[in-house]
Amino acid sequence: MADDKKPDEGADDAPAKSGGGVVPLILGVLNLLVTGGLAAAIFLGLGPSSPGTAAPADQVGDGGVPLDENGKPIKPKEEDEGPGPLVQLDDFVVQLRNPEFDRYVRVRFHVEVKDDDYIADIEKNAPIIRDDFIRYLSDRTFEELRGSQGLKRTKEELFQHLITVIPPEKVNNLLITKFVVQ
């Protein structure tokens, strides 16, 4: 009976070889290096530029300078240039629409124009702009103006009113520089 033992039966008791652990280790290290390299390239801006940043081929002049719709070279805005010229409108005090009790809003606006030449256009049309803004604001409730979303919506609506008076090619932005509700 002792001779009936097969030669392979004792092999189950021996520990398995661990030679297969080297390949996953190498793949893990390689994966870490590639991921780290890609992260470093993105962080340092060495990767390919995003598709929306390049000007279309038909709007690029000599030397790769982007052109505007009139074919003139676009001057890049300098970092320290800041906003365009600002024109302050007089403060507005407007009674809000509220059936229960009186609420007032006090607002100050600045209009950012694209060039100093357009400041006179804003000043000349200031009464028309004020009239339009007052009519819009007096038809709002406190709840409509409340919070950042209310201010954002109000600013967008008033900007649309502004560019009906002043052509949009003359105006960059409308800034709300004071906003108090009582």
Question: What does this entry show, briefly?
Answer:
The chain is built from five helices and four strands; from the N terminus they run H-E-E-E-H-H-H-H-E.
Question: What string gives the helices and strands in order?
Answer: HEEEHHHHE
Biggest pleated-sheet summary = 4 strands, antiparallel
Q: Determine the fraction of residues in helical runs and give it as a percent range.
A: 25-40%
* Weakly predicted, low-confidence segments: 48-55, 76-80
Number of strands: 4
Radius of gyration: 34 Å
CATH top level class name of the domain at 86-181: Alpha Beta
Indicate the proportion of strand residues.
Answer: 15-25%
CATH topology description of the domain at 86-181: Tetrahydropterin Synthase, Chain A
Rounded mean pLDDT score: 78
Number of helices: 5
Amino-to-carboxy terminus distance = 104 Å
Structural class: alpha+beta
CATH architecture of the domain at 86-181: 2-Layer Sandwich
Bulk shape? elongated
Key attributes of the depicted protein:
36% helix, 4 strands, 182 residues
Secondary-structure blueprint of this entry?
Blueprint: H1 22-44, E1 86-88, E2 92-95, E3 104-113, H2 119-124, H3 126-138, H4 142-145, H5 147-165, E4 171-181
Antiparallel strand pairs: 1-3, 2-3, 3-4
Characterization of the model:
The chain contains 5 helices and 4 strands. It is an alpha+beta fold and 182 residues long. It has a domain at 86-181: Tetrahydropterin Synthase, Chain A (2-Layer Sandwich), CATH 3.30.479. Strands 1, 2, 3 and 4 form a 4-stranded antiparallel beta sheet that branches. Strand 2 and strand 3 form a beta hairpin. Helix 3 packs antiparallel against helix 5 (147-165). The longest helix has 23 residues, at 22-44. It is elongated, with a radius of gyration of 34 Å. Residues 48-55 and 76-80 have low confidence and may be disordered.
